[in-house]
Amino acid sequence: MFMKPSHVIMMFLISSIVLAGGNDKSIDWDGIKHQPGADVPGISPSKTYRYFDYTSNKTVFYLQVIKDNITSVNVVWRNGFDKNDNYLEMSLSDCCVDNTLYEYWYAELTKQNSSNLYYVFQIKYGDDTDWAGPGGAGLNKVVHENQPTISANWWTFDDTPLAVELLSFVGDYSDYQVELRWETIREINNYGFNIERSINKQDWIKIGFNEGLKNNYTLREYAYVDRDILFGTYYYRLRQINTDGTFVFSPIVEVEAGELPEEIVLEQNYPNPFNPITMIRFAVIERTHVDLSVYNIIGDKIMTLFNDIANDGRVYEVTFDATGLASGIYFYKLSTAKDVEIKKMILMK
Predict the structure, then answer these.
(1) Is 41 in the same domain as 152?
(2) Around 1, how many Cα atoms within 13 Å sit in the side-chain half-sphere?
(3) Are the beta carbons of 178 and 234 closer than 8 angstroms?
(4) Same structural domain for residues 94 and 27?
(5) CA 86, 92, 94, 100 torsion: positive or negative?
(6) 3 belongs to a structural domain
């Protein structure tokens, strides 16, 4: 039989910045985009980052720094680049175990409902001050001696309400298929969701689409079943598409589908008994030529269902249509160069 684990891991993609010590006190900023449902329950505090906490409705800042006699850190932010500076004091956090080398500064900014927010970090060493911000034109590792005066040297972000607020996104493997489920609490101009799958988190294919509700302000549940999977680890994400064509990606869900336990696997047909159509699944552990054929009770071959190269690890599903055949017992045989397996099925008209 196929192995049937039910193992789900939810993964959130978190970008990060790191402030290094010594004379090269630079921030390695990768930027964090807001993602529906990014409540980041598994976010690593060993990096530096910004994210939006939907539970507290605040933007959260963490700053990881090499211990270097830092006396204070502020997030200096503006609602519009030409507006006044606002100072958000950061506090030392006891979040992390590697506190012999690093220290961590933490702050929360109440939601501003603005698409035009700018910020830099003001880092003080006694009477000395550094300003950590991007360098512009793709140069994102810069510490300025003075407060930056151009917008390219400030990070920007948008904390306006998301078109779709995703409460959860999970996946579960069972009975040779993956069931994906997600919930939304708000939808504004939501065209729908492309469901995408990957085996390496780099190359994605669209496997389905669920239509959105356009506009909705109550809890809505969605589901999608992926029946065409291989054994191994699979990654899923949602591409939420707005009615204007813009889109955002959900967090990634990782699902473990187990390993093929035998050289060949031939499942019992379903349904059985059947009339007149039934499904047969099989898989092989290595790429090989496979023949799947149906025989009557006296051993005559009446139909070949599959006669081709089968790839390793994949679950193949073929249809047997017994229209025109008499009721009775039939056998189906799966043959490779190394193995043969036979099962019985009943046609009942």
Answers:
(1) yes
(2) 7
(3) yes
(4) yes
(5) positive
(6) no
Give the CB-side neighbour count of residue 306, counting CA atoms within 13 A. Answer: 25
Classify residue 167 as left (phi > 0), alpha (psi -120 to 50) or beta: alpha
36 burial via Cβ count (<10 Å: 0-12, 13-18, 19+): buried
Verify that 207 and 271 share a domain, yes or no.
no
What's the pLDDT score for residue 247? 81
Give the span between the Cα atoms of 19 and 27, in whole angstroms. 4
Least confident of 11-15, 55-59, 111-115, 314-318: 11-15
Whether residue 183 sits in one domain with residue 277: no
Strands 247-249 and 252-256: unpaired
Question: Same domain for 51 and 107?
Answer: yes
Two structure tokens written together for 88: 């958000």
Identify which of 163, 224, 158 has the alpha carbon closest to the alpha carbon of residue 190: 163
d(CA 164, CA 214): 10
Average pLDDT over residues 203-216: 89
Q: Is 245 exposed, middle or buried (0-12, 13-18, 19+ CB in 10 A)?
A: exposed
User: Do 268 and 306 fall into the same domain?
Assistant: yes
pTM: predicted TM-score of the whole model, two decimal places: 0.44
Residue 323's domain spans which residues?
264-347
Q: In the predicted model, what is the mean pLDDT of residues 238-251?
A: 85
Give the pLDDT band (50/70/90) at residue 140.
low
